[in-house]
Specification:
The chain is an alpha/beta fold. About 25% of the residues lie in helices and about 25% in strands. The chain is built from eight helices and seven strands; from the N terminus they run H-H-H-H-H-H-E-H-H-E-E-E-E-E-E. The chain is globular, with a radius of gyration of 23 Å. The chain starts with a helix and ends with a strand. It comes from Brevifollis gellanilyticus. InterPro entries: DUF1980_C. This is DUF1980 domain-containing protein.
Amino acid sequence: MLIAPLTWAAFKSPDRYSGNAVVNKGLYNPNYEDKTNAEKFALRPVDKSAPAAATAAVKTERAAPNPTPMPDSAPPPPAQFKDADKVAKAAPAPPDKAQSFGSFTLEDLKKQVPQNKNGDFVLEVPEIYYTGGDLEVQKVITGQSVETTAQVLPEKVNNADGHRLRIFRLMVQCCAADARPYSIPVDFGKKAPEFKEMSWVKVVGKMSYKKEGDQVVPIIEATSIEETPAPADAMIY
């Protein structure tokens, strides 16, 4: 009795997200200042000395003679930390704007990011997404020509003139069910072309940034867009 419904489900159940599912996962309300997973997509050179220094510190601590004995029980918290409300008020406020994280140059960008034969920097959407929270990277990449491949949906925010589309990539944290869309707008400076929802496109354009609401939004000012085959890995892991 179960063979027929299971067979139907196997062939008819979608093996990919629909446009509505992606929208419901927060497509149109990104937080470009959020640093979750930023270390995976940062355009800055990786400081490889930090882990080594940390390891050396651990080794030194382990080798130190006569270590201080651990107390039998943890001491009571200072009086100022007993009141949860006071602790919350004393905590630093989360960043609400793009910040400077130190020097970043065009040479750094060239070392970190490949360029195609036309000189466009080839970036993944999440890499572009996270530049929205880094002022120094923005200064370098503004006006640079970039290429990215992504899926496309209509733009539903800040698009009264119809000049924009929204492109995105889904990133898997643990499994496909928890995939999160990383999205950015693409501006054409005129009526945006029409594409089938969720189709794959290759976009080339210049990077720009615009304050919209309380965020600095990374925007690709498109010079070309064309349909392209889906990559081997439709989701980023």
